[in-house]
Design brief:
Structural class: mainly beta
Largest sheet: 5 strands, antiparallel
Strand content: over 45%
Radius of gyration: 19 Å
Low-confidence stretches: 175-190
Order of helices and strands: EEEEEEEEEEEEEEE
Distance between the termini: 39 Å
Shape: globular
């Protein structure tokens, strides 16, 4: 086996008590990150040392309504914390955006809510909520040409655009062929 060409980097191990990083984005020369507890950091790209710049979304919860899967017709309410699952950056305006979700999955009830929001680079707190949904679960968040794009990672895996006012448009359409059962996907060029 041949050794790959290039520079090898040894990544820093998490310090004791540090929560794992769940989402990061390189914005210009600054690497911003959220950890699993919702705290917001800048990260030195040479040493990978974290500097907490704000509480981020730590402590942000959603009261989720969930119906039981056992057919008893009961409705439960669960307070679930949000976690950031993806981030993106608009280099023209310097704005940061994050996709976050609150979920509760158990043998009896499942429920979730997802948010896409602009976040404050000074604190990591939500500045402006763009979308809140309990059907789509945004992942692979990207900012391009004044719009956000995401793939619904929960239901159909469809690529969707959303403007900064929250209006969604499918970028990818799905067609089902009743004769063959085949699904064909058409994706519009970004």
């Amino acid at each position: 086996m041949t050794k790959p060409q290039g520079r090898w980097t040894t990544l820093r191990e998490d310090a004791e008590g540090e929560a794992k990083i769940t989402a990061s984005v390189l914005a210009g020369e600054t690497l911003y990150s959220y950890d699993a507890e919702g705290y917001f950091y800048t990260v030195d790209t040479e040493t990978f040392q974290r500097t907490q710049v704000g509480s981020g979304i730590h402590g942000l919860t959603e009261s989720l309504e969930a119906q039981d899967k056992l057919g008893a017709g009961l409705v439960y309410y669960v307070d679930a914390p949000y976690s950031v699952v993806d981030m993106t950056y608009d280099p023209e305006t310097g704005k940061l955006y994050a996709a976050m979700e609150a979920y509760n999955i158990s043998p009896i009830v499942d429920s979730f809510k997802a948010i896409i929001a602009e976040v404050d680079p000074a604190t990591g707190a939500i500045k402006e909520q763009i979308m809140k949904d309990s059907v789509a679960r945004p992942s692979n968040l990207l900012f391009h040409d004044g719009k956000l794009y995401f793939v619904d990672g929960f239901t159909a895996g469809m690529l969707t655009s959303i403007d900064l006012e929250g209006k969604r448009s499918p970028v990818q359409s799905r067609r089902f062929s009743p004769n063959t059962g085949a699904i064909s996907l058409a994706v519009a060029a970004l």
